[in-house]
Design a protein that fits this description.
Number of helices of chain A: 13
Helix content of chain A: 55-70%
Shape of chain A: globular
Number of strands of chain A: 0
Number of helices of chain B: 17
Shape of chain B: globular
Order of helices and strands of chain A: HHHHHHHHHHHHH
CATH class of the largest domain in chain A: Mainly Alpha
Oligomer: heterodimer
Structural class of chain B: mainly alpha
CATH topology of the largest domain in chain A: MetI-like fold
Structural class of chain A: mainly alpha
Number of domains of chain B: 1
Largest sheet of chain A: none
Distance between the termini of chain A: 35 Å
CATH class of chain B: Mainly Alpha
CATH architecture of the largest domain in chain A: Orthogonal Bundle
Largest sheet of chain B: 2 strands, antiparallel
Distance between the termini of chain B: 18 Å
Number of domains of chain A: 2
Strand content of chain B: under 5%
Radius of gyration of chain B: 27 Å
CATH superfamily of the largest domain in chain A: MetI-like
Chain lengths: 292, 319
């Protein structure tokens, strides 16, 4: 449909080059970090830049796993992600279903209050004082409950529920199903793909969450992986956890490769689910754009 | 087409349903209210109690006295903030960073989407998209860590390269001049690819006949891009620009916080990080709440203001 003129071909060639360069620039930092984490200290110091290490060493990984700090914080992250996502889905879907029934008295008031909370909020300090007042500081719940519902997700899910065929809900209620039964036996099973999408949304949010831990968790034993990574790379703490508990015969690898290894470890889960992320998230963005 | 009332059966001449009192309706929907309860409680406790808690901005709040025991001081906290030299520093840093973002980051996804839209080979397009979406899913901590690893003067590849080429070392991470460019570079790297999605969707809706007509009229690829493709995504661009300008005071707490250190604080501090360090770290709850409230109110005004401007200029706006 488009003419194959000389100008057109030049246009295409330049376009392909520009896009390739951008795509490569985007992923190169990751590849360099992965390569560097497996390289020996001498190679990392002597070679300026490489994407495939000539030497291979697991020193950095042995070093970061020589104490259980990283492992424990990984467990915290997994716990918060799993429990947090379940809590998110439970709170969001129940409320969304109630708000999707148009005849509910008070529905519009609640909806308006939800929308208002998206534009204006109490802010960091008053929210902190509420969490503190509830005695949640230094508890893993502080990373879960204060973000139990994302108002934007709530409204999108509510809109989705509203579009389920009303005849289905009606026939169920004629058959003697309560609203609770309709929600559990009809609405939720029909919404599985949508729920999977939002589960991913929430889960990635929890895994990447640094802010809640920074704000609410002082006890270093309850720090998630993101905080440990920040402590380790940015605070330039040469040792993870208790240095005295380490094997004294162990040669400490250079900081750079150790930092790279921590970065790799904390991004592995995201990399593992990336194929699904890409598929569902692109859809999710579009749902929000069309109906939000 | 929403809110079409369900047609009632015509044959029911007597309509007892219409006489339902509020009480019977509430009773009928008891399970729905049960389902609504946890969510409503959540919004009450974590969204609306904090809004009420904003009142401590007008107090000298002391944790041991509590909300009801603390003294009311009127607008003293606000006065202190506006008279404090910090105020202009924060405002300046915040607005400069937002301006950097609008000038350097905002056009990036548009350009990239236009380039991607011209690609005919589906495999190539898909591959590029798969690669450029990756950083969006990485946490800010990972992005900042990678930046540290690349730019540190202790063996970071970029600073080694710079000292090799220019013969002197630049400490990017603590430099006052490099703080803002680093932040913008991070944003471009992390979000440009992801930002193309909305524009690509808008581009997919452009009528192919327009291009055919243009080709018949002798328009080349540039001309088509300029006169057909770009105008067709104009309203998407305007709406996103409004949203961006309305959020001028939001610079992204995590990113700034992670890139701030003792040496670059002068240019790094923005409202959010200031609230954190004064409120949480130093414990001045009332003063920092006043700062947060100021920011929130200006933010709301900006959103409505830019929306108003957009509607005046003939676009549909977001409200």
């Amino acid at each position: 449909m488009r003419t194959n003129t000389v100008g057109g071909r030049m246009f295409d060639i330049i376009n392909y080059i520009l896009l390739s360069v951008f795509a490569i620039v985007t992923v190169i930092p990751f590849i360099y970090v992965i390569a560097g984490s497996f390289a020996t200290s001498t190679e990392l110091a002597s070679r300026a830049f490489f994407l495939i290490p000539k030497t291979f060493s697991l020193n950095a990984y042995q070093y970061i796993f020589s104490t259980d700090t990283l492992f424990k914080s990984g467990l915290v992250s997994v716990y918060v992600t799993v429990v947090g996502t379940v809590v998110n889905l439970l709170f969001t879907t129940t409320m969304a279903y109630a708000l999707s029934r148009r005849h509910l008295i008070g529905r519009n008031t609640v909806l308006n209050l939800v929308v208002f909370s998206m534009v204006f909020g109490g802010g960091m300090i008053p929210t902190f004082l509420v969490v503190k007042g509830l005695g949640m500081l230094d508890s893993l719940w502080a990373m879960i409950i204060p973000g139990a519902i994302n108002a934007f997700n709530l409204i999108i899910i509510k809109n989705f529920f509203q579009e389920l065929p009303p005849s289905l809900l009606e026939s169920a209620s004629i058959d003697g199903c309560t609203d609770l039964g309709i929600f559990w036996r009809i609405v939720l099973p029909l919404s599985k793909p949508v729920l999977a999408t939002f589960a991913l949304f929430y889960a990635v949010g929890h895994w990447n969450d640094f802010f809640s831990a920074l704000l609410y968790i002082n006890d270093s034993a309850k720090w998630p992986l993101q905080v440990i990574l920040q402590q380790f790379v940015m605070m330039s703490q040469g040792t993870i956890g208790d240095a005295s508990s380490m094997d004294p015969t162990f040669v400490k690898p250079p900081d750079q490769s150790v930092k790279m290894a921590v970065i790799v470890v904390s991004s592995i889960p995201i990399m593992l689910v990336y194929p699904w992320l890409q598929k569902y998230f692109v859809k999710g963005v579009m749902v929000g754009a069309v109906k939000g | 087409m929403e809110n079409v009332p369900v047609q009632e059966p015509v044959l029911s001449t007597v309509r007892p349903a219409a006489k339902k009192t509020i009480f019977t309706k509430l009773k009928r929907d008891k399970w729905l209210y049960l389902l609504l309860f946890p969510g409503a409680l959540y919004f009450l406790v974590f969204k609306y109690v904090p809004m009420w808690g904003i009142l401590i901005a007008f107090q000298d709040y002391q944790p041991y006295l509590g909300f009801f025991g603390s003294h009311w001081v009127g607008v003293d906290n606000f006065k202190n903030f506006f008279m404090n030299p910090d105020f202009f520093r924060l405002l300046k840093n915040t607005l400069i960073l937002s301006a950097y973002n609008i000038f350097f980051f905002f056009p990036a996804p548009i350009i990239l989407a236009l380039l991607l839209n011209e690609v005919r080979k589906a495999v190539f397009k898909k591959t590029v998209q798969t690669l450029i979406y990756v950083p969006h899913f990485m946490s800010m901590v990972i992005v900042a860590s990678i930046t540290y690893v690349f730019f540190t003067t202790e063996g970071g590849i970029v600073s080694e390269l710079v000292s090799h080429l220019f013969g002197r070392q630049i400490d990017f991470l603590t430099s006052l001049t490099w703080f803002r460019p680093l932040i913008v570079m991070q944003t471009i790297w992390k979000e440009t690819g992801w930002g193309t999605i909305l524009f690509l969707a808008a581009l997919a809706g452009v009528d192919a006949q327009l291009y055919e007509a243009a080709i018949v009229d002798g328009a080349g690829r540039w001309r088509q891009l300029w006169n057909i493709t770009l105008p067709s995504i104009r309203s998407t661009i305007v709406i996103l620009l409004i949203l961006r300008m309305g959020a001028s005071l939001d610079n992204g707490f995590e990113q700034i916080f992670l890139m701030t250190n003792a040496l670059n604080r002068q240019v790094a501090d923005v409202f959010d990080t200031y609230v954190y360090s004064v409120g949480i770290t130093q414990g001045s709850f009332s003063y920092s709440t006043a700062v947060g409230l100021f920011k929130a109110i200006v933010g709301v005004v900006l959103i409505f203001g830019s929306n108003f401007l957009a509607r005046k200029s003939g676009e549909s706006g977001i409200f």
